Structure formats: structure tokens, C-alpha cells
């Protein structure tokens, strides 16, 4: 970190990848120090991509000072203290481990990896780096929607009592059209899995984050509804179907699974990219012996709260607009009722990561948390491959406080 | 049936049981011929219960001409042409089979029975009676919420195309309080199962009715969260806990299961009596390649309809208030926007049953349909007992048109 | 009233008119004694209409014992103790006054009359009859939606504190199509006014009922958007427009007005039959210094309740499903979460009227209440005719407890 | 403008005021060129406030290169090409006119001024500057919520046909507590008016923007519910009430008014800071002969669209999540379903203003539009002072295309 007179010391950020996630992370890094009081001031030091002209254009567009074409060069830069990994899952392990070994802090997009083995290696590297004062966080950004953070706080305070039900569904519909092409996200070797790893990973993380405890086991069904899709770069979908070259989809379009938490609560999770009409519907409903909470990312400023101890005649779900100064992150933003959006989760993520770095505290979610999610995803795939039989999730956590 | 001058012939109804369901059925029988043009006019001939003074009071209150204390006497009455069974599940088979053998039409509350064996015997009796012109219907009344019927019609017309997802949840919360007493509904020997048979039966019937095809198999978890409850008639819950005699709950509080339809669609079902804040939330969402539908019984006059072929900029879920004259059953009721309620399902059920009797057509849902639901419930219990392994639902349908 | 052994004495009802309102009232009279414990048992004695065969068919359909073709004969019948007036507004005064003078109780559909002069005569007749033990009620049935009654109770208990805002809108859309024919509802000489008297009367009654105080004055705009409509019985709308005979619409299509209550609260009211897409949207929102309430008749089982004293972080509108046994009228109906519908308001109206008759208490809303609404409607028309100038509502109430 | 090699030329922005609006505008200026392709690149050149240390801190926090303490010095800077005025209304005219005379482009927060006379002078200055190629925009940012812009486009395309109703309500609740202190916003000499100028100005602008035509006249009631409030800087509200020095509130707490558009549509508007539980509820519903639209700023990513030509059985309000690439401004942001927030309106405002400057086109809303809103607000105050009599809004527009 570089100290400048009268200001918070700088924290140089280097980002690998600049597609959707890179754009979103950039917005977070550019904004965070203008909104929050931070002990370190993030500086957009360098961005990395393979195509020289494209990465240069991305650097200009998104406000990064320098551009690199090899992630190893980015990791090696002295002005980069934190490596932010926004690439597809198959390169996460390699980059993250190298960055940690080079003494950098790391932020890695979710899912942590494409396999449990990779995730274990990453978690081990993070643990080793932790002893050197480095911090490694995985990017489950939806924990940082204020309504979601608020939900976690209410549960942690005991407002729901013992949990009975945790339901999470993450529904999108961009694969409904059978002519959507066969991109990397639909190939197992690049993406690891389909809706499961992309959407289900968020759902699993939220289920465990909200409940404050890990999934013990799962029983799962998965399905690929459209098994062949047009190869990218081949004749357009408007060509006669016979002329469109197609290839096999090797990941799931949807996954449905149930599970149990240590407290005995039943969990149900659904992830789909084929839920026509649902654009980004990450919903949860958590019920306990004292109350319930419900949320839908399509209305991200609202949390529905039911207090079961209220008199029956007054009882129901209260729609709390989560924009009050008492709500998480909101003190720094606008007056009550002035909505936040999707990208604010990345500003909040940046704030919390910078705070953890400055304080030397374990970030949440850590790589260990990301590994735990990976184990659940692997158990889901195992269960689905073995007739949905209930499949325990191995417990490897070394941190009893976390899922 | 008894013909009277210038009017539709009468259809004498005899009802067994007069608790919640008896009250609801009575309202349907009393109302139906004042609202719909019917080929037969139902007459509330006799009601049956074991306690003489109570059944006499119920007859007066609900408008029944006579009262009986033995269901065999009710079945034997000449003025009873249709036996309406509103008792707990353990007596359904005995009464229904006797009534069918006595030449009566039968309406039987759901679930059809407490076991597959009973349900098979009932379906066989119905099949035999069918050849004698008798009709036997099972009371899955929620098919007759106009928004639900409309949903079925839209799916049958192909408005959703090939189905991908069928999600049904039926959530109530009357068991959240651990001091709710151990009534017959919480004892396996009387009720067969818990949330599964009570709420899950509706959910399974709706999933199959809406899709127009049977569940092929299921993978299930069930749970009893509160395992001991106060015995009824013992010291009240306000007594010191130590003095309250408790007995074991022998049915499930909640069931979660996933399954597959023949078309390949994934099904997810949840039934719970422990979903704090949800009073009667029977919700479904069905997605296909061309659109989606969503419904919640707590807003029973509304159907949400998404047409995936609409231009993206205009696309979304349309909240249709299902009170137009073009909607099912609505021609007979009020002008647009004037809401119907829960009890109307029983009036519609009465209308459809009377129509089937007059026309001599197979009613929907038939006892065969009720048997099919029973097989799914049994498969759910089997799966839950065997580590959630995917358990096929035996196919015994002799009617290829029906679930 | 006629006493029969062991039962509540009978109360003979005679109804004049059998269109939409007649059908709805019939359902209420048929149902009420099967649901509520009543001191008198209403009997559907006779129905009256001008066309002999039609009124006979209506009697059969709706369950009335006898049919009359002259309302004077109906009023004269010994078996009629209560005259229920469901005709257009221009005959209300004549029938109601005659019935009261003949010693009958009266229920009169809203609006009470087509003019203040008629309403004053009716209120005077009711006052005179009151001293003879007779009861006269006006049919503002929406007061008896349980969520609305609950709202009134909360306000009367002081849960909102001093009121600041009362907003009521009643929006329908059946006149959007310019080819809807020119029925009696669109002619001033029959209907008195248009959306104002039909929908606005309900809105005004609710504003005053909820607040518990009268409107002091109003400032209003009204509009007739479609000024010529096809004459009924002439060539159908599908004819070439030139061939369709049209006549002038002499009532308003919509009215917008603001006013003040004695407490200082601002009131805003809108009534329209041209609000495309709104079928029966009677909505209110009432705000006070301690909280707010909101309601929409299209979701009539829900009341939104905001408690402004709750901590900011937990604050919001609670969606109360008004189906708990503690809620008004609900003890007699179904378990929690089982929805009521539009027609239940007529059952509740019948219950409350029968109770007032048996107890000899002033009914609510009384003819005096109906007169007060009529005065507000007249002030609205005056204001609209005089450039919207604020127009006081004359106070003529002799009953300080009521609006 | 300053050209730099290979990039868009720079546009130096100087901002006066740095409270809530200054913070929001800063976020817009910082973000806009990272998201949109712009012909000019805004640079945060200088910020101005009266307190030297505070303005220096604000400059650092919000990313401004320099700080000034006299707005005249800011206007005089060569590196400032655009003056962005975020001060209370009483200084708008002076600063805006000086900036325009100094050859700068101007963005001025709403309401344009505290009086019609000031607004006329500003509009005249803008007209004169326009001939010199300068651009002057008023900050009605809610036009740039994508769902609102979309609504305007649908109306302009004729999707609603001739309009019948325009209802707008802007409800907040921060004055419900009678101990909120007497800040500048509650003093007529600083703020011009209360809820009317603050919230009502937005409502009036939206009504006219959506309809595409001006209000012809209004009839209004206003009210100040809490007439004395604690003076700021005096003993805190927790002091005994007797010891709290209070002063008179000289602006309205709420305003309710109705009006007419040239097309004949009825308009109703309500603005309140006393609507308990409503934090930032800017809602509209617009109905025409072919359809309707509805919106609520508390759910700013949603537009409800009703097409009255759809078959009745399919008809209703479609909830469009306005995050598709085809929607206004969305191409530049995130994938479908990823919500935008309040602050995005300022980024969109910056984009549109920069585009107008580069193209030399008239911005929307122009100072002439701001003047028109001011005339409506003045007519509202006149009407409220004269017994709500319908008060014409003078037409001074020189631009027939605009409200």
C-alpha cells in the first residue's frame, strides 16, 4: 500500500477479465471510496485480458490506469496489491493460487472453482496466505444486497427462532430459446456445470449464509432440456435449421434439490435458466418457529418480514423498504425510499474487502466458504448421478463459526 | 331422481360428516342451483353424524332435511341418490364402497384414502359402478378455482408449449406453535400422513391436473419438527409444561419432493404446516418453452400469465383478474372484478358433479385420479424412508387421457 | 315476525328488483342464517318485478316463495316484514316511504336517492318510523368487507391518531368502449348521475365511514368523455357507424374531487368508469400521525397496515390477510387464509340488519347516513358546475355520533 | 471543451452545492463516461460551497479536482464549461443567469425557481444563450427512470390512444413527526413552497411529460398540518416541550389538486410529506381509450402496462421489468433483471445533457419546461388561496412541441 499525504493509503487493484463481471467490479472499485469512509483507498491500477486492443479499450472505458495481456504480469506488478479475478471458473485456481503466493490479496468471482479439488487447493493457499496477513474473498455478491444482509442479521439475532424451512430459487430464462448458441457457459470443461454452478452456487451460498450453518446433505435431480445448440460463429439462427451446425450441451439447464441443515431445517433449492419470464429471480423464504422472511432479487430493496408473535389480527408479512439509515450499508447512500440497484452489491463487496484487508480480519465469504459451496455442488451432482439418493456433504471446515 | 312438474328433477344428497368440509359442501349444495342452470336440482336430503343432538343441530344449521346417526342408514335411504363423504380418511373406503354397491353416486373428500390398497379397492368399486351408470368423484376442489381451471385450459391449448418446470407449494402455519394439541390429523392411524396427505395431496393433484400427465417418480424428504404434542382434553397449554401430558406425533409436519413428468418436465413440491405467516398459500408456477403461469390461493382471483413470444420490451407476467364472463364458471356469477372466494370451489364442484351424473360422463377428478394421487403419496413416503432415492410411481391408469 | 317452535322467529323479506343487485341480495338472504347465529330467521317471502313471467322465473331461480308484479302489492303482504329495494335510484323514495308508512323495515340500495330532496324525505320517513320500532338501512355493502370493517375499527381505536389524508378511488372500465350502449345508467333522469352516484357514492360513504366524520366541503371536476352513445335496441355496434342511432350521455363518466374533514384531514376522491384495465378497483389509503392503512377491493381479503411507531428498520406496510377468527365476521366462516368474496358483503349486511331489527337499534348506515352522502354528491355537482369552487356540504345530521 | 489525443474532448463541470443533490449529481458525473459512449467526456473540474474546509472535504470525497467558495469564481473558471446548480431554489435564478451570461451551459436542479418571475428571467436567459449555442436543462431526473421514459415512449407512440386520466401522487413521510425541526425547506422565503414545490414539482413535470401536453388549469387545496416546529439548533426534541423554541412553518405539508389537459383528460395530483409509511412513493397511473400504465418509484424497475385491445380473458396489467436491452438507457447497463437504482437517473441525465451539448440540440426538460411547471405551481397556490376555484395556467410556451 502506498501512503499519500493526508489521505487514506492507496490499495492497488489489478483485475483479470473484463466482461460482465469485470464491468460490474469496475463500477464497484470506482465508486466505493466516494461513498464510504475507508481505511484504504482502492486505485484501479491495471486490468488484464488476452487481446491487446480490447483490453486497452476496456481499461479506458472502465477507468483502469494500465493494461496487461498476461495475468502473470499483472500479478507481478508492484502497484497491484489485490488481484480481482473475473474470468471463467476454469482459470480461477491457477490465478488465485499464484496471486496468493506472490503475496497479493485476492477477490475471486464465484463459483470458487470448477471442482472440489481446485477449491481445496485454493482454500489451502488462502489459509497459508492468511498467516502472512493476506486476505482472500470469494465474490458471492448477493450477500451484500442490504435486504439480504438485513435478513441474515435478523436470523442471527434469533428473530426467527429455530429454523424450519429454507427455500431458495434462482430463476432465469435466457436459455428458453433453443437457438441460443453453445457458449462457454454451456460446456462442462469451461463452466464446470450449468445453472447449478452459475445460479445454484448463489442459492447454496445464500441458504447457508442466511441460516448460519452448512448443508449436511442433498438429494437432487438435474436436467438438460435442450441437448443440442447452434455452435457459435456458425450460420445464424435465421438460417434454415438443417444448415445450422449444432453441438452437445454438456451442462445442466436446471437443478432441483432438497437438503437438511444441522438444526434440522429442510432446505429446498431450485436453479434454472429455463424459467420463462423470470429474468433474475433469486428468491428466498426462510421460516422459523418465531417468524419468516421472504425476498426476491427482482425487488431487491424490499424484505418481507413476518413476526409470528404479533397478535393474529395484526399479523402478516411486513414489506420493509430496506433503505433506512439503520439498514446495512444504507447510512452512506441516499435518503429513505431511494432505491439501490444490482451494482451496489459490488461497491459493498469492495468496502467489506478493503475493510478486512485494513483490519487483517478474515473476510466473509472466505475461500473456505467458497469451498463449502463447491462441496455442496459436487454432492448435488453426485446425487443426481445416483438416482437422487441423499448424499452427505463432507465437512472440512476448520472454522466452526462459518458455514 | 325425483321429477317435479316444470322443474329439473331432484337429486337427493346425503352427506356424512359435518365439520369444516361438511359446512363447505353444504354451502355448495345450497347455492348451486340458484346460480347455475342444472339438469338436476340437488336437494339436501339427509346428513349423518354419530352424536344425535349434534347432527340434528348441524342439519338445522346447514339446511339438511333429515339427520342420521349411522352412515349405513343414510346410504340406505331412498331419497339419497348421492353420498357425499366428508369424514376423515380412515373411513372413506368403507363408506364409498358401500354407497357405490348400494347404487349411489359418490363424492369423496380428498385424499381418496389412507393407503394405496384402500384407494385401489375404491377405484375398482367406482369402475364397476360406472358400468351401472353411477358416478364417483374425489373432492380436489382447488381444480375449480376459476384461475386454476383457466390455467389448465391455457396449458391444454398449448399456450406454454412443452413444459419445463412445475412447482407447487402448499404452505400453512397452524402447527408452528408446539402447544397445538395432538388431534386426529396428527395421528398416522387416522390421517394416513400429515402435511403430505392433507396439503401435499392437493399439490400433487394440481401438478398432474395442470400438466395433464402423471408424475413418473419422486425423490422426497419429510420431517416432523415437533415430535411430542399435548394430548387433547388434558391440561391446557397454559399449565406448566411439566404437567401437560404429551403424546407422539406420528405424521410428517412437512414434505419436500422433486419428480419428473413423462414430458421431461421437472416437478418440485413442498407441503408444510410449519411455514410461519402462510395461512393457506397454495402456489404454483408452471413454465414451458412458450410461456409461464403463476398462482397463489391467497389471491385466488388472480392468474399471472407470461407469454414468452411477446416482444422483449413488452414482456412480463400479466395479472389477469379471473372474473370475466369468458373465464370458467364466471358467466353465472358477478360482473368483472367482483371477487369469488374459497367456498365457490364447492359450488363449482357440485355443478360439475351434477352435470356428470345427468350426462352419464366420467367425472374429473375420478376415483382413478384419486388413486393416482395416492400412489404418488405412497412413493413419496417410500422415497423418504429410503434416503430420498428416486422412486417410480406405478402406473395403473386404464384411462390414457387422464393423469 | 312469525314464531315457529324451537327456532328463531321468522322475518319475511320482500325484494323489489331482481337484476344484479337482486341476485346479490338473494344470495345474502339465502345464506345468512346458515352461517350466523341470528335472533330472527330471514325467509325469502316474495319478489317483485313488472314482467310476470320474468319475475316468476327469478323467484324460482333465486329461491323466493312468491312473486308480485306491483311493488304496492308486495309492500301490502302480511308475510313481508322487511322490504329490500334493489331498483334504480329514481324509484327508491316512493317505495321506501310507502314501505315505512306501511310499517315495514326497509333496506334500500345505494345511492339512497337521485336528489337531496328525495333523500331528505326518505330520512324523515325513516326517523318517523324509528319511533315505531322500524329500521331503515341503506346498502353501502362495502363497509362489510371484513378488511374494511377492520380498517374502521383500527381508526376508531386511534391506531392512526389524528388523520391527515383520506384517499379513495373507485375505478372501473366498462365505458372505455365508445360503443357501449346508452342504458338507464347513462341517463340523468334515471340514474341521477354517472360514475359519481354509482361509484363515487361508495367512495364518499367509505371516506366518511372510515374517518368517522363528515366531509365539510368539496372542490370537484367532472367529465363526460364519450358524449354520444348508441341507443339500445338499435342496430348493433358492428353496423357501419353512420347507421347507428346515438343519443346524448347526460351523466358524468368520471369525477375527481378534493375535500376537508372536520379534523382537518385532506380527502381526495376519484370515480371513473373509464379507467382502462381496472375492473372493480375500490381503493383507499388513510394516513394519520401514527400510521396508515391501504386497501384495494380487487384484493378484498387483504388490508395493508403501517404502524409508524415501529422502529424504522422494521417499519413498513404489513399485508394482513383478513381471515382470522379475530377479524370482523370471520368467526362464522372458514379457517385462516380461506378467502371470502364479493357476495359475502350481502350476507354480512343481512346479518347486521337482522340484528338491528331484533335489537331495535339504529342500523349503520342509516338513511341519515345515506342522506349525508347525497348531500356530498350534490355539493360535488354544484362545485363542478361552478368552476370547482370549494362548496360546503350542508350539515343536517340530527345524530352527532354519525357522519 | 478541451481536446485530448485519441479521446472524446473534455467537458469541464463546475458544481455549486454539495448536499444530497450534489452527492447524487457527483455520482452521475463520475459514472457516465464509463457506461455510455459520449461525444464529450465530463471532467469534475470544480465544486463550490461557502465553507472552505467543508467544500474541500466534499471535493475530495466526491472526486472534484478543485474547490471554490464563491460561485462567481466557479462560473469564471476557464476549465468550467457547464455549471451544475444544486443549491436551494432561492439562488437558482442568480447563478443560472450569471452562468449563461458567462457563456456556460447550465444544469439547474428543480424546481427551476421559487417564483414565476425568476423562472421567466431564467427562461429568457436560456433562450438568449441558446442562440449562442449554449444549453440549459432543468433537473427533473425522474423522467430518466427507464420505466418512466418507456412510459412516455408508449404514450407518444399512441399505445394508450386519447388520454382520459392522469393521476400522479408523490408521497413521503419525513414530516409526520411534529418534532422534525424547522429547516430551510419549511420556510417560504428559502423554499418557495413545501411539498408542492419539492414533490409536486416532480409530479407536475411527470404529468405533463407523460401526456406530452400542458395542464390548462387547476383546482387545489393545500394544508399545513403541523404549524409550529422546533427551531434548529435549539434544545433537542427530547427536552420538555415547553423548553423547545418553535417557529412557524410557512409552507404547505401537502397539496391536492385536479386539472385538465388540452386533450380533455382529467389530471389529479397529490403531494405530501405526511403520508405515514410512504418513503418515496412517486406513483402514476395514466389511462387512455386503448390502455393504461402504472408506476411506483418504490419499485422503479417495473412498469405495469395494460393493453385494452387484448382479449378480455387474457387482459390485465403486465408487470414489465424494465431492464431489457430494448428499454431506454438499458443497452449500456447490465443483463435483463439486474436492477437499476435511484442514482442512475443522474447518470442518464448527465448522458442526455452531454449529448445535447455536443449536438447543439435543445435539452429536455428545458428551462422553458421548468417555467411551465412553475406556472402550474403558481396556479395551484392561487387556486388554494381562492377557495379552490379552477385557475387557468397561463400559456407562455414558444415551443409548440413541448409541455
Automatic annotation (TrEMBL), chains A, B, C, D:
Transmembrane parts of this sequence: none
Domain Gfo/Idh/MocA-like oxidoreductase N-terminal stretches: 12-133
Keywords, comma-separated and alphabetical: Oxidoreductase
Keyword flag Transmembrane:
no
Its recorded name reads Dehydrogenase
Q: Which residues form the GFO/IDH/MocA-like oxidoreductase domain?
A: 149-293
What domain of life does the native source organism fall in? Bacteria
Amino acid at each position: 500500500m502506498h501512503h499519500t499525504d493526508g489521505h487514506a493509503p492507496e490499495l492497488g487493484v489489478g483485475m483479470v477479465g473484463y466482461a460482465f463481471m469485470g464491468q460490474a467490479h469496475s463500477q464497484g472499485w470506482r465508486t466505493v471510496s466516494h461513498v464510504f469512509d475507508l481505511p484504504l483507498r482502492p486505485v484501479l491500477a491495471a486490468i488484464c485480458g488476452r487481446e491487446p486492443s480490447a483490453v486497452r479499450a476496456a481499461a479506458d472505458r472502465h477507468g483502469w490506469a494500465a493494461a496487461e495481456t498476461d495475468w502473470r504480469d499483472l500479478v507481478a506488478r508492484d502497484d497491484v496489491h489485490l488481484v480481482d479475478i473475473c474470468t471463467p471458473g476454469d482459470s480461477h485456481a491457477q490465478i488465485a493460487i499464484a496471486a496468493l503466493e506472490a503475496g497479493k490479496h485476492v477477490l475471486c468471482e464465484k463459483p470458487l472453482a470448477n471442482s472440489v479439488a481446485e477449491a481445496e487447493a485454493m482454500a489451502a493457499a488462502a489459509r497459508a496466505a492468511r498467516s502472512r496477513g493476506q486476505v482472500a474473498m470469494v465474490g458471492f455478491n448477493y450477500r451484500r444486497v442490504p435486504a439480504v444482509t438485513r435478513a441474515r442479521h435478523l436470523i442471527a439475532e434469533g428473530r426467527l427462532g429455530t429454523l424450519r424451512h429454507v427455500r431458495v430459487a434462482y430463476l432465469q430464462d435466457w436459455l428458453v430459446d433453443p437457438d441460443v448458441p453453445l457458449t462457454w457457459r454451456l460446456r462442462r470443461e469451461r463452466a464446470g456445470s450449468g445453472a447449478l454452478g452459475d445460479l445454484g452456487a448463489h442459492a447454496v451460498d445464500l441458504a447457508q449464509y442466511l441460516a448460519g450453518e452448512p448443508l449436511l446433505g442433498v438429494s437432487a435431480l438435474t436436467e438438460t432440456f435442450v441437448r443440442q445448440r447452434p455452435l457459435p460463429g456458425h450460420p445464424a439462427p435465421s438460417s434454415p435449421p438443417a444448415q445450422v451446425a449444432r453441438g452437445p450441451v454438456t451442462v445442466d439447464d436446471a437443478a432441483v434439490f432438497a437438503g437438511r441443515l444441522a438444526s434440522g431445517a429442510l432446505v429446498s433449492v431450485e436453479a434454472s435458466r429455463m424459467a420463462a419470464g423470470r429474468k433474475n429471480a433469486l428468491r428466498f423464504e426462510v421460516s422459523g418457529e418465531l417468524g419468516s422472511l421472504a425476498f426476491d432479487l427482482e425487488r431487491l430493496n424490499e424484505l418481507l418480514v413476518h413476526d409470528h408473535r404479533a397478535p393474529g389480527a395484526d399479523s402478516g408479512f411486513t414489506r420493509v423498504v430496506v433503505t433506512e439509515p439503520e439498514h446495512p450499508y444504507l447510512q452512506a447512500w441516499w435518503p429513505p425510499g431511494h432505491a439501490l440497484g444490482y451494482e451496489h452489491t459490488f461497491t459493498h463487496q469492495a468496502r467489506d474487502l478493503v475493510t478486512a484487508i485494513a483490519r487483517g480480519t478474515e473476510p466473509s465469504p472466505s475461500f473456505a466458504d467458497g469451498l463449502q459451496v463447491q462441496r455442496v455442488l459436487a454432492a448435488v451432482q453426485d446425487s443426481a448421478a445416483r438416482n437422487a439418493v441423499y448424499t452427505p456433504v463432507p465437512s472440512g471446515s476448520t472454522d466452526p463459526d462459518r458455514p
